Amino acid sequence: MLAFLPPVVRGSIALVLLVFNTLFWCALLLTLSLVKLVLPFAAVRRLIDPALNAIATAWIACNGGWMRLTQRTEWDVQGVDGLKYAGWYLVNCNHQSWVDILVLQRVMNRRIPMLKFFLKQELIWVPVIGLAWWALDFPFMRRHSRAALRARPELRQQDRETTRRACQKFALVPTSVMNFAEGTRRTPAKHKAQSSPYRHLLKPKAGALALALNAMGAQFHSLIDATIAYPGGVPTFWDFLCGRVPRIVLRVRQLPIPPAFCEGDYDGDPEFRAEMHRWLAQIWEDKDALLDELLRKPG
Q: Is 68 a member of any domain?
C-alpha cells in the first residue's frame, strides 16, 4: 500500500512499526515470564509456555502486517503445504543475512510450532529483544576459540549443558528447534577463508544438530530443510525495511531423521561422527545445487 513512497521513507515507517510492535508484545511477554521465573515448576511451565509462544506468534504476525504495508517484495515459497502445526521439528537453513530470520518467521508462522534459535551469548544484551529471547527459552551458546578449547577442554561442556537444559524445556511444549548449520552468516570473505567446497554455502557444522538430536531426537517428527535465495542480491536488514528486496525465494522439504542419530555418541564415536558428517554433507550438496538453480533462474 505504501510502495509508492521513497525507499528511505518506507524503511523509516517500517522501523517505527517494528519498534512499537516489539515493545508492545515484549511488555506482555516479560510480565508473564516473571510468573515462570517465580514458580519454576514443570506444571507451571506447561501452562505459561504456550501463552508465551502465542504472544511471540502474534508479534511475528504483526511484523507480517507492516511488511505487507511497506513492501512490494515477491515471495516465491514452495514446500510448506505439508507442514503441521503440532509436534516437534528440527529446522535447518542456510544463513546469509539477518533477514533470513524474518523470512523464516513470516513463512513458518502458524505452520509449525514456534521457532527457537540457538543464539550467541552476546545477543542476550540486545535491548528488549534479548530479554524476549531469554523469556522464550532461546538457548544462548558461548563461542570459544580453538586455542581456548585446547587449553581448557572442559569449556566444550558449557554448550552441551546449555543445549541439554534447553531441550528439556522444549520437550514440554511442541517446538521447532532452529539451527543454522554454517554457524555464521555466509559472506564472500568467510567463504574464501574457509576454502568452502560449496559454491553458495559455508561448510556445515554438525555439532549443534548432534546435540539437539541426542537430547530429544526421538521427539522430532522430521528435519525441515529450508533453503533461502535472494536473486536480487543478499540484502542488509535496512535494505529489507526499505523494501529494496525485489524477490525472496524459499524452498522447504521434510527429511526423515535416521533413528541412529538420536542415540549415537557424536564426541566419543568417530565412526558415528563421520556418518553424521556424510549425511549433512549430502544435504549441503543438494542445497548448493538448488541455490545454483534458483539464483540462475530468471525471475
A: no
